[in-house]
Design a protein that fits this description.
about 220 residues; alpha/beta; Rossmann fold; 10 helices; globular
Length: about 220
């Protein structure tokens, strides 16, 4: 058995308390040694982030400061081109060949996994932990190619993640945190009134950074 490192990618535009609580809950429930946030530089599956890569990285760094077991990894910010998951996992695997890695994905993102770049190679590099989402039934509408991986790789005992470096699927239910980055951005576009409205939805240091740099003061409709 080896300690498992959770890998949590995303745009974090901006990072908010829902992200942090999810990471903390998974770390505690699954016994991860740490959860590593990896902000995407140029995400391939959604519109371009509103805040720059440098700002988003700075916000993640502020958000996790002083929080045990949470880390940040800037490699996708600094790597040119699209921020594909497989190259990131390949780099992590070269750095620690035998360490179990667990890629954290939401249920909706998991159902779209066959659209990801070189998606089948993910299982050779990491486990996949699927986070349950309200209203999303994972088995319903699952693509046939993904259903095959699901049937062969699914675990029911989280402790098994530490026995191998990669290759398994685990579904983990978590507490719902109905905080939306798009709603936060829309509120912030209202100016000072919006800053007051989102207080408590983001770490205080992140909100202060946003206010100081006047981020999200436009494009409230960005996704």
């Amino acid at each position: 058995m080896q300690p498992v490192l959770g890998i949590f990618g995303g745009t974090f535009d901006p990072i908010h308390c829902g992200h942090l609580e999810l990471a903390r809950e998974l770390r505690d429930a699954l016994g991860f040694s740490a959860v590593r946030f990896i902000p995407a530089g140029d995400p391939p599956h959604r519109a371009a982030p509103v805040a720059t890569a440098a700002h988003r990285l700075a916000m993640v760094e502020l958000a996790i400061a002083g929080r045990p077991g949470l880390q940040v990894d800037a490699r996708e910010i600094h790597r040119p081109g699209r921020s594909y998951t497989v190259p990131t996992l390949e780099e992590l695997r070269k750095e620690e060949p035998s360490r179990p890695l667990a890629l954290i994905v939401g249920a909706d993102a998991f159902l779209g996994l066959p659209t990801w770049h070189r998606w089948r190679e993910i299982f050779a590099l990491a486990h996949v932990v699927v986070v349950g989402r309200p209203g999303v039934t994972i088995e319903d509408g699952m693509p046939a190619a993904l259903a095959d991986e699901w049937s062969r790789r699914r675990l029911t005992d989280a402790a098994e993640l530490g026995r191998t470096a990669a290759g398994s699927l685990l579904v983990q239910a978590v507490t719902a945190h109905p905080i939306s980055a798009s709603v936060i951005r829309a509120q912030l576009a209202r100016g000072d009134e919006g800053v007051a409205a989102v207080r408590g939805l983001l770490p205080a240091a992140v909100l202060a950074y946003i206010d100081r740099n006047r981020l999200y003061r436009s494009r409230p409709d960005a996704t």
